[in-house]
Design brief:
Strand content: 15-25%
Helix content: 40-55%
Strand order of the largest sheet: 5-4-3-8-7-6
Shape: elongated
Radius of gyration: 35 Å
Number of strands: 13
Low-confidence stretches: 1-28, 378-382, 421-427
Oligomer: single chain
Number of domains: 3
């Protein structure tokens, strides 16, 4: 039997023990340029597949196992606090454990490799190593040898750890460790970008939740104020009007001046009641509670007099804050038609399209130069209410588009996506 006199690292209690090792115990590694090119192309494909960590991990794990001729590969990534590691990629059947296996920095062989940023090689008897932590889900008893290397690069620093395991005993060579380290460095930049993407998505979701909570709280307060006005001020005004009518009924002709004053007081009470009703409607559209969004929009459109209407509304079960925002957008758009459009026909549409809700209001009026209005911020001086409509749509995670040309009418569309984005694991 031929022996290789080169030194092979074996990890013993945190230090390398150099000794000669038979060639048959060595990893095959990348024996030729074709294998190296295949690995590089595979890594490029994995990096290009998308910014999600789980996608990257799922593609990288089998590549590493094949390149190092090992039986299993696990990819661990630091969480956002840089205090723990989570399994984000694994060769089957252990891919079912992705997101479930966590290690504190410094815990287990993986955590040790990360905290010390040094490779670890264990040839056999893993359980005797004080750093080893057993996970029943990963069936460590089925695998004899392992190598664990930190994933790091100069620009990104430490981002995680690569682990490989073999069922039969294997003396991982310097070349094996260098190969694993090189692969880890290649992947580190993509993992770093994926972690940044995850943080960005989490922040966007937090912003959306905050905006939603703010709208809900605002609408709850508006509803409370509307109820207070209705149950308090309006009831007293109605009582006042009743007493004014009663007093007017008993006055004689000789008391005409007092009668005239009562008539004026009655008109003032009626005007105040109308203003109170308008205030309640401005705070919280009661029609939404009574009819729902679809019928409320139809009722709103029918309040336009002297205009032909084409109404196509679909019943959609939506959160309260979404219904209110869409109702307000439609209200503003219809008011614009009355004030500016000089239209003879209006189309109102509410539809659910897969995971989207579409609200669309069109008219055949005189139109305007929408690009000019937006570009010159005309809305700030009154304009067409585009800013307020756009802000309402954005607050519910939607988008407002306005299409208009002089003499060609106007179309206002609000699109809201209903499906929640894929959950972002807290890694």
């Amino acid at each position: 039997m031929t022996h290789d006199v080169r030194q092979t690292p074996t990890r013993v209690s945190g230090t390398y023990d150099r000794r000669s090792v038979p060639e048959r115990n060595r990893g095959l590694g990348l024996a030729d340029p074709a294998s190296e090119n295949a690995l590089l192309l595979g890594i490029i494909d994995a990096i290009s597949a998308g910014p999600e960590l789980e996608v990257l991990g799922a593609l990288v794990a089998p590549l590493v196992a094949e390149a190092t001729t090992t039986d299993e590969c696990f990819v661990y990534v630091l969480d956002d606090s840089d205090r723990s590691l989570t399994l984000v990629g694994a060769t089957p059947p252990f891919d079912k454990q992705i997101g479930r296996i966590r290690l504190a920095l410094g815990e287990g062989v993986t955590g040790w490799a990360a905290s010390h940023q040094e490779p670890v090689v264990i040839v056999d008897d893993k359980r005797s190593d004080p750093r080893y932590r057993y996970f029943p889900e990963l069936r460590g008893e089925d695998y004899t040898s392992m190598a664990s290397v930190p994933m790091a690069s100069a620009p990104s620093g430490l981002v995680g750890v690569l682990n490989v395991h073999t069922r039969s005993r294997r003396e991982f060579s310097d070349r094996d460790v260098r190969l694993l380290t090189s692969i880890g460095s290649l992947i580190a930049g993509a993992v770093h970008q994926a972690r940044l993407h995850r943080r960005l998505v989490a922040r966007e979701r937090a912003h959306e939740r905050f905006a939603e909570q703010a709208i809900v709280a605002q609408e709850a307060e508006r509803q409370r104020l509307a109820a207070d006005i209705h149950d308090g001020i309006m009831q007293r005004l109605c009582s006042l009007r009743f007493h004014l009518d009663a007093a007017a009924d008993v006055l004689t002709e000789e008391q005409q001046f007092a009668a005239d004053q009562l008539v004026l007081a009655r008109k003032l009470a009626d005007l105040t009641l109308d203003e109170a009703r308008a205030a309640i409607n401005g705070l919280r559209p009661p029609v939404l509670d009574d009819l729902g969004l679809a019928d409320s929009l139809a009722s709103l459109a029918r309040s336009l007099h002297g205009i032909d209407l084409v109404i196509d509304v679909e019943d959609c079960v939506l959160p309260d804050h979404v219904e209110i925002a869409l109702y307000r957008v439609a209200q503003e758009a219809l008011q614009n038609i009355v004030k500016h459009a000089q239209a003879t026909r209006v189309w109102l549409r509410l539809a659910r399209l897969d995971d989207r809700i579409l609200l669309e209001i069109s008219d055949d009026g005189r139109g305007f130069d929408a690009d000019h209005v937006v570009r010159n911020d005309t809305d700030r001086d009154g304009g067409y209410g585009l800013r307020s409509m756009s802000e309402r749509a954005e607050l519910i995670g939607g988008r407002l588009t306005v299409r208009s040309r002089v003499g060609r009418g106007t179309t206002v569309s609000a699109t809201v996506h209903l499906s929640e984005p894929a959950g972002v694991p807290d890694l």
